[in-house]
Amino acid sequence: MNVIQQLEKEQQKEKVPALRAGDTVKVHAKVVEGTRERIQVFEGIVIRVTGGGLRQNFTVRRVTHGVGVERTFMIHSPRIDKIDVLRHGDVRQGRLYYLRGKVGRAGRIRERRSAVAAPAEAAPAESTEEAEE
Amino acid sequence: MKGLLARKLGMTQLFNPDGTTSAVTVLEAGPCKVLGLRTTEKDGYSAARIAFEVAPEKKFTKPLLGEFKKAGFEPHRQVVEIRGYDGLETGQELKAEIFAAGEIVDVTAHSKGKGFQGLIKRHKFSRGPESHGSMNVRQPGSIGATDAARVFKGVKMSGQMGNVRTTARAYKIVRVDAERNLLLVEGGVPGGKGALVLVRQSTKPQKVKGPAGKPTGRKV
Predict the structure, then answer these.
(1) CB contact under 8 A, B13 and A4
(2) pTM for this one?
């Protein structure tokens, strides 16, 4: 392993959920308000996952008060406390930009049925997070 | 002015405590050794001769081997002089620790060669119109006045781009890794991966930011 790979590995979190577009997640992000730091939860649907390794990031979309809000997070960022995967969605696209044009029931995503198709990493990560709660 | 020779290992990303990221270049700093010193009395100027990377003896000429023998260590492939680097002794080892995080440095290296390039890429000329019968899409345009009856030296034209020794100034050192002997500087430095680079304390004057080092507040 070369030095750059080492430097990147040091910054990576040991355990991150294997996210896919269509997953419903709860992102616990640290925010600073004045001098105080608190954790803000952002829940929504993952509409894209880009990059890999240290640079992997994902965008979460939610609709609040009729306004679509999208936030992009770096998966290994120290400002992210925890990512809970609530459910896996059954989608065919890698980038769910079509959700931007959908309102209400049209924007729903079916839950993924087959457990076989679920990535192996996701299962243990989920179970530990549920145990913490 | 302190400095040393290093190898560029490549670039990566560092997370800042506030969640933003910085692109950094990883430099393997030395270890270099001081081959000798130039002094004002003897040589007319003061400088330090820095040697980097051990190489087999057969690679050297006898005069250079003699210098290494005199300095008392094995021959090194790369030798440079750094002007005005005081407080060194012959044989002393230079590592990443000579710099500290937050310091500003200049980096000298051979830039990546781009080959023979046109004016648009090489000198940032703008292109002509592409349609309506235009035939000067990537042409140079005028290269001088008619009364001069010649082309002046230094007129920007197409030619070899890159692969020149260049100094890029004022890089901030983000981190010094003493254990692995690394320097992490913010941004990209000239040269490809594995390039030999000379890292020196910056000569660029730094702008003073407002009182007490804080940026001056914008008046609303």
Answers:
(1) no
(2) 0.80
